[in-house]
Amino acid sequence: MKVRSGTLAVVLSAFLAVVSVPARAEEFKFDAAEFEKKPVELFGYFEQKEEALKLRSNSPAYQLAYPGQSGQSGLLRSTSTLELGGRLNLDSFVADLRTQSVYSYDDLLRSNDSNKVMEGGLRWSAGPDLTLDLGKRVQRWGKGYAWNPVGFVERPKDPNDPQASREGYTMASGEWTTASLGESGGPISNVTLTGLVLPTNAHMNADYGATANLNPAAKLYLLALDTDIDMMWRAKGARPQSFGFDFSRNLSSALEVHGEWARTLDAPRLSLGANGLTTSESMNFNSYLLGLRYLTQGEVTWIGEYYRNGAGYSADQLDNYYQFLDRALGTIAAPALENKARALAQGGYGKANPGLDYLYVKASVSEPFDWVYGAASLTAMANLNDGSYQITPEISYTGFTNVELRARVIVLGGPPQSEFAEKASSSRLEVYARFFF
Are 146 and 290 in contact (CB under 8 A)? Predict the structure, then answer.
């Protein structure tokens, strides 16, 4: 379907009309039957998202994102998402499946659709302390909110929307748990050991690695001295060997601190020099994160995180890359330079956050100004090396049963030849309506 120019205005009007209607508080009722495990569970949601983008039509990122398209300053995009899931509970066995279908349309890329299995498989509780699992899973390793340096066996989060649904990898895993250590009165009260294999070849988990490997990994969880601690390891295979740890601890009822540290060995890295020549090297690097979550007396939740991307590029290295893009994608660029520019963009330079040091801060509050069922937040993310930034104010409303309305504005800026100032768009307005069932 083609997006009409009035679509966004209609959606915005409807959104404002809905959130201005006062919601009626419902009497709380407790029904124990609602918490019993049902033999069959079905769930899902439908989401409609409308976007209005302000484009940097003269930027190299625009030419990479919309090759062969004439420059334009604005773009409307419409995206429909249907996610369906189900779970079959059979005593000690649980079979589940979660799928996602997405259709989007805009005037530059035209229509685009995808259908994929996000998660699904068979889980067997072999005993009170042992669970075995076979299928497609999202492991969710790490304590960080926006980033996870120790997420060795999962697709990375989107820092723009860390809670967005993610696709898993096909794997076989087992998990053993014991709380018996706590009975002795020692410092460690709970222990959980997770082991898995994530097989790769040209047909299975090919985006994790196309070489034939089992890619074993393990995680040991400890609850020690009221601190959550995980230790992780991934063997060398389709990806380099990595190991690390994370922790999380409540210092008070209002303050929590968390952190992650990961070391990767013999990782391949492509870099571009000031002369335009690329070099490939193997390197060992450390990545880490330190963050906190604080709830003020005014019920404002603050999340702050500092992230060090050990495999990232310095401000000067990114500047070399952006200058090369200007030359490679210029009006008289040679095809060979264009191909090289796209290859670099698909490598480390094209990742969500290719720099070295980042700061993430988010302030959120529920029912601000007595706005019942409403919520508001303000998020800022900055590349500390080049001074570029992204600021995102957001509001949401959940006053209707099984409905969530959400709107946010993303503003990107910074000095010339810096990360967020070189994105294809300088700002973006997003309006969502999600219906759960």
Answer: no
H-helix or E-strand spanning residue 236: none
In the chain, the number of structural domains is 1
Residue 176 in tokens = 């053993």
Q: Maximum Cα–Cα distance for the chain, whole Å? A: 74
How far from 10 is each of 6, 16, 105, 189, CA to CA, in Å? 6, 10, 17, 55
- What digits encode the pLDDT tens for the residues 89-99? 998 999 999 99
Amino acid at 126: A
pLDDT tens for residues 202-218?
Answer: 999 999 998 999 999 99
Q: How far are the Cα atoms of 140, 379, 430, 432 from residue 408, in angstroms, in the given order?
A: 26, 10, 5, 9
Q: Residue 77: which domain range?
A: 1-18+38-116+423-437
Residue 187: which region, alpha, beta or left (left: phi > 0; alpha: psi -120 to 50)? alpha
Query: What b-and-e string marks burial along 116-136, b requiring 16 or more CB atoms within 10 Å of the CB?
Result: eebbbbebbeeeeeebebebb
Q: What is the pTM of this model?
A: 0.88
Please tell me the distance from the alpha carbon of residue 221 to that of residue 247, in angstroms, as a whole number.
10
Q: Is residue 2 part of a domain?
A: yes
